[in-house]
Design a protein that fits this description.
2 domains, alpha+beta
Length: 179
Amino acid sequence: MKYKNVPFNMTLAKHIGKGSVYGRVRLVDSAGAAFGYAKYVDYDSKIDKYLFQVSAAADNTVFGTEEFDINGKYCFPDGQVYSLIIEIPVEDSYDDDAIINSLADSFVVQEKDPHYHKCKIEPIDYILANNLDFCEGNIVKYITRYKDKGGKDDLRKIKVYVDYLIDKLTKESNDTTSD
């Protein structure tokens, strides 16, 4: 299989291998030489670092869990800097840079929203894991961020979505009782 590098962003790196995004996160040294693979584990809000399990490229021996910054950088105690890179599988017939880069770009919007970084579970992960519909997903999104971003406006948006769901349920219950 052929792989193509895409621009690094932490949100995309976190979703690699979760079923919605196929690819791999590689660990490279400052010269760009492959060192191993990395898999997202968790975010540690106390130190503002992203934890990745690092394994050897040759035999997948796990070295341990290392702390990376938002840009995917890790500095060993000896000063050597390692970086995470993202590789997406491509077929020869599907080697269009614009399409590949649009996949990475689709994850950048949330990456820039710092009000989600302190969450133990990001709203998008919770929404997808629980198969929430559009209205339910927006309720989760707005309730998660209202203190740090939208304030009263986000709470008003939640009310609109809740009212819509109540109206929908009321209509559905009226439809079943009228049969």
